[in-house]
Design brief:
alpha/beta; 434 Repressor (Amino-terminal Domain); 3 domains; 4-stranded parallel sheet; elongated
Length: 341
């Protein structure tokens, strides 16, 4: 990580736009245009400025810029005021895209239902406290009230309660999990589901059941969990020893953690005697013992794409092309393996 402190312990002076211009061999007006993201710049010129910015570790003084331009250079990211779920990876991707474009970000909680949040969002823009607004929760028709150039983008993958919907709730990877485990010789399965208040949990459950039936496999049953470690632990502890189950599909990585620990406390070896597959690719899955098989989806890329769409509105530019590839990928690790003989 770059530091503002030199070897002597004194704080280094922040590089200026004129120093960037001098190193790149261009005018400071050209660098200013580069920082604003204005189009029409030759690729060779942009490359020289890119290199100069990197070499000098140049970071624009956003506060000074906003005083000169009467612009806030801030983007508001909206969540419901009362929520137990914060989409950290998507916030990270969105914030990174904004910062790279020279904007600061503020996470704002707006109270009320979608209509009331919409009023709060428009009021926030009217005060000039933010130049654009990216919402991870519905805002009624706020984004449409002032035409296509309204600097509001609503990320439509969550409902009022921050429950995943749309692409994020796609249950199809559950079919890939079942097929993968079937290829390893597993024939009898258990599914520990998530809360049925969530579309993602309902979709995973349905795809699991449909795939087991379509492949001529057996499902010992579906345990109604609540996304918690405890629900997975109890499901594993209560599974009869003669159930014949050799593979468990858990609704998420926390449930899978509980399942694995529940079996371990019973003396059931994972994966030698029981394979376990989770979902979400949480960071701890790489360091758990055994490492956990899971489903990865690039939530940071989703946040970045949403922010780039908003920045295009703020600048009056064309919308960027969608660059997301396959959203979900299976990540087999140490908690799954061949069926026991």
């Amino acid at each position: 990580m770059a530091s503002d402190t030199g070897a002597s312990g004194t704080r280094k002076k922040r590089a200026t736009i004129w120093e960037v211009a001098r190193l790149a061999g261009v005018s400071h007006q050209t660098v200013s245009r580069y920082l604003k993201g204005n189009g029409g710049m030759k690729p060779a010129t942009k490359a020289k400025i890119d290199q100069a910015v990197a070499e000098l570790d140049y970071r624009p003084n956003l506060i000074a810029r906003s005083m000169r331009t009467q612009r806030s250079n801030r983007i508001a990211i909206v969540l419901p005021e009362l929520t137990n779920f914060v989409p950290i990876p998507m916030l990270r991707g969105a914030s990174a895209a904004a910062h790279e474009a020279g904007y600061m970000t503020d996470v704002v909680g707006l109270e009320g239902d979608a209509s009331r949040r919409a009023e709060g969002a428009l009021a926030l823009l009217d005060t000039g406290q933010a130049e654009g607004l990216l919402s991870f929760t519905p805002l009624a028709d706020a984004a449409d009230r002032s035409g296509e150039q309204t600097p509001i983008v609503v990320f439509g993958e969550y409902d009022d309660n921050m429950h995943a919907q749309g692409e994020l709730a796609d249950g199809r990877p559950a079919a890939e999990i079942v097929r993968h485990l079937a290829d390893l010789g597993h024939r009898r399965f258990l599914h520990v589901a998530g809360s049925q208040d969530w579309a993602s949990a309902r979709n995973r459950r349905k795809v699991y059941a449909d795939t087991v039936e379509a492949l001529g496999l057996e499902s010992y049953g579906i345990v109604h969990g609540d996304w918690s470690v405890r629900s997975g632990y109890e499901a594993a502890r209560e599974l009869p020893a003669d159930s014949g189950v050799t593979a468990v599909f858990a609704a998420n990585d926390y449930v899978a953690m509980g399942v694995i620990r529940g079996f371990q406390d019973r003396g059931v070896r994972v994966p030698e005697e029981m394979s376990v597959f989770g979902w979400d690719n949480e960071q701890f899955t790489q360091y758990f013992r055994p490492t956990m098989s899971t489903v990865n989806y690039d939530r940071e890329a989703l946040g970045r794409q949403a922010m780039l769409s908003l920045l295009a509105r703020v600048r009056g530019e064309e919308q960027p092309p969608g660059q997301l590839g396959k959203l979900f990928d299976l990540v087999p690790r140490g908690s799954s393996g061949p069926a026991p003989h």
